[in-house]
Design a protein that fits this description.
Elements lengths: L1 H14 L6 E2 L2 E2 L9 E7 L2 E10 L10 H6 L21 E9 L5 H21 L4 E7 L1 H8 L2 E5 L4 E3 L2 E12 L3
Parallel strand pairs: 5-6
Antiparallel strand pairs: 1-2, 3-4, 4-5, 6-9, 7-9, 8-9
């Protein structure tokens, strides 16, 4: 677990220069609770990519999950207008957050790593009863999910966060109909 938190720090705090909490060389926040699941792609002990999954039914003190809490105005770094509609709270919907691929992963390996990461995300979500995932991610994610065969839709406006245009997407964990 500590290796993924260290890799997140390297990606989000060191490379992206995001203002996030860190301690002992690790990045973590109020959503890293026992209710969440963490997925990592690694090679020889080094984390190359990662994702955090959190149920939309999660509760930890005054917090639930990142997208909903942003919409409720609890997070200053993410606009309240993140979604077109109210954030869902349902056992079959999980949130994906803190998605990253290490910056030094060679371009030739990125597609394979991304496919592995998303495959494990889907598998983990389904094993925990999810049939849908909500995420705030770079706009390209929608296209990537479709390329991997999953139906997705944008469910919020494009937002510039941390120097990247992000958008909330809703992903259905059943293969897309062609």
């Amino acid at each position: 677990m500590s290796n993924i938190l260290k890799a997140r720090r390297e990606c989000f705090i060191v490379q992206e220069n995001w203002d996030l909490p860190e301690t002992d060389g690790m990045e973590f926040d109020q959503y890293d609770t026992p209710q969440s699941r963490w997925i990592a792609v690694h090679k020889e002990g080094r984390v190359l990519a990662g994702i955090r999954l959190t149920p939309t039914t999660a509760k930890c003190g005054m917090y639930s999950y990142m997208i909903r809490d942003a919409q409720l105005g609890l997070l200053q770094s993410i606009p309240v207008g993140i979604l077109y509609d109210a954030a869902p709270v349902a056992e079959h919907i999980w949130e994906s957050s803190r998605v990253f691929i290490a910056q030094d992963v060679p371009a030739a390996d990125r597609g394979h790593i991304q496919k592995s990461l998303i495959g494990e995300m889907v598998h983990t979500a389904q094993c925990n009863g999810a049939s849908e995932i909500l995420a705030l991610c770079p706009r390209a994610w929608k296209r990537w999910m479709r390329m991997l065969g999953y139906e997705t839709e944008h469910v919020g406006p494009p937002l510039e966060i941390g120097g990247t245009v992000n958008q909330a997407i809703h992903m259905y964990l059943r293969p897309a109909l062609h």
